[in-house]
Amino acid sequence: MAKKKILIVDDEPDILKTMKIFLETEGFDIITAVDGVSALDKIRKDNPDVVILDIMIPKADGYKVCRIIKFDKKRKVTPVIIFTAKAQESDERMAKECRADAYITKPFQPDVLLGKIKELLEYAE
Asked: Which residues form the Response regulatory domain (predicted)?
């Protein structure tokens, strides 16, 4: 079975590095982006199985990127996990409005993130 590909979008290098190492040790193929525009380019080019998306990123925020993914006929089934330090109810409501599949706040529990990724991959198949 081919490795599942995950795109992690975050403008904080330490978070990108930590998540990349963690998810690679769990057997995933990881690609990264640091802003909304490069994230959309990588989604089109690499066709990831899951997108983990920070809200506060440059060039196009996570909500906008999520909306673009979910309104694209070819990619609307791609699971999107909003991954953010913003823990307000209004932020979570915005994530639902842009059709995100999950909402996880930082700092994160690795097992919670991994469980959500596996659940969304199972559901997507």
From this structure: 5-121
Amino acid (1-letter code) at residue 9: V
Q: Which two three-digit tokens encode residue 72?
A: 């694209």
Q: Is the pTM for the entire model greater than 0.85?
A: yes
Which two tokens mark 77? 């089934």
Q: Total structural domains in the chain?
A: 1
Whole-angstrom CA distances from 64 to 36, 61, 90, 109, 124 are: 8, 5, 16, 26, 22
Report how far residue 75's alpha carbon sits from residue 19's, in angstroms, rounded to the nearest whole number: 23
Q: Which CATH number covers residue 9?
A: 3.40.50.2300
Helices 36-46 and 62-70: crossing angle in degrees, nearest 10, is: 30
User: Domain containing 101: what range?
Assistant: 5-124
pLDDT in tens, 59-113: 999 999 999 999 999 999 999 999 988 778 888 899 999 999 999 988 878 899 9
